[in-house]
Specification:
Blueprint: E1 12-15, H1 24-34, E2 38-42, H2 51-60, E3 64-72, H3 79-99, E4 103-107, H4 116-137, E5 140-143, H5 160-170, E6 175-180, H6 181-184, H7 190-199, E7 203-208, H8 232-241, E8 248-250, H9 255-258, H10 262-276
Parallel strand pairs: 1-2, 1-8, 2-3, 3-4, 4-5, 5-6, 6-7, 7-8
Helix pairs in contact: 2-3, 3-4, 7-8
Bound molecules: zinc ion.
Length: about 280
């Protein structure tokens, strides 16, 4: 690989979960030193810390907070449990505001065994209950459609088409979509749906990694860009043609990479980003 200019990293962001063995303080310091420009903070990385302090640290190191992961998980068996889910999401929004994060990513949830339509209704009701709070805190909500293999427990929203339809139905400028190549690469309608989302001004986030073939683990075997079969550059092109100008967020859950030296992994992320994204 021929190294490119450092300016090519201007839109590179990394999710803290990607380097899970590091504390958020270590992640911030090491990302900044590697020339990474953004960071999406997972809520568990904030445990025992004041989000305001972490936000100051991030900005002090010259990084941009690109988002918080994650809220959602709206469907539940009882009205009380669904209300508790909304309250938990309100706490997540408070953390976003304190951290200075522009967007909260929503993994919308699914109650195993509950009909898809019922799950979708409960997701929509949860988002509608949350939106006034999001608007008052000036934090956007991004629905992240997940790969259909997670439809049983993690998200009844498995297609960007469904996310577009729900955003259209709710019609709030504070609600949009997180496009993750891992979840959406297989969709033959992807280009059309990304264009529709762009047209409506709802392309909020772009998550990248790769889909290894075969997967050794359905959750924690995501590949580094270039290790799998996703057309990451092609999907990035769809995003850019649809008006997206935001960060490219590296989000990798990988038992294999978490077991490696994280400084080496970070170096590989930067190289892979330049070569394959
Ligand atoms: Zn994602």
């Amino acid at each position: 690989m021929t190294p490119r200019k450092l300016t090519d990293l201007l839109k590179l962001s990394i999710h803290t979960i990607t380097t899970k063995p590091w504390s958020v303080e270590e992640a911030v310091e090491n990302y900044a030193r590697a020339g990474v420009k953004g960071i999406t903070v997972w809520r568990q990385a904030l445990e025992g810390r004041k989000p305001e302090t972490v936000g100051k640290l991030i900005r002090g190191c010259g990084l941009t907070v690109t988002g918080v992961a994650r809220g959602g998980f709206f469907p539940a068996a009882t009205a009380r449990a669904r209300q508790q889910a909304v309250e938990e999401n309100r706490r997540a929004l408070e953390e976003c505001a304190a951290l200075g994060a522009p967007v909260l990513v929503l993994v919308c949830g699914a109650l195993p065994g509950q009909a898809v339509q019922k799950n979708l209704e409960q997701i929509q009701a949860g988002i509608e209950a949350l939106l006034p709070h999001a608007e008052s805190r000036e934090v956007k909500l991004a629905i992240e459609p997940l790969h259909p293999m997670y439809a049983d427990t993690r998200s009844a929203i498995v297609k960007i088409e469904t996310a577009n339809a729900m955003c259209g139905s709710i019609a709030s400028p504070w609600l949009g979509i997180a496009v993750d190549v891992y979840h959406l690469w297989w969709d033959p309608d992807l280009e059309h749906e990304i264009a529709a989302a762009g047209e409506a001004g709802r392309l909020f986030c772009f998550h990248i990694c790769d889909w290894k073939t075969p997967l050794e683990d359905l959750l924690n075997d995501r590949g580094l860009m270039g290790e799998g079969i996703c057309d990451i550059r092609g999907i990035r092109g769809m995003m850019e043609r649809s008006g997206f100008t935001g960060f490219h967020e590296v989000e990798i859950f990988s038992n294999r990479w978490w077991a490696a030296d994280q400084h080496y992994f970070l170096k590989k992320i930067v190289e892979a980003y330049l070569a394959h994204s």
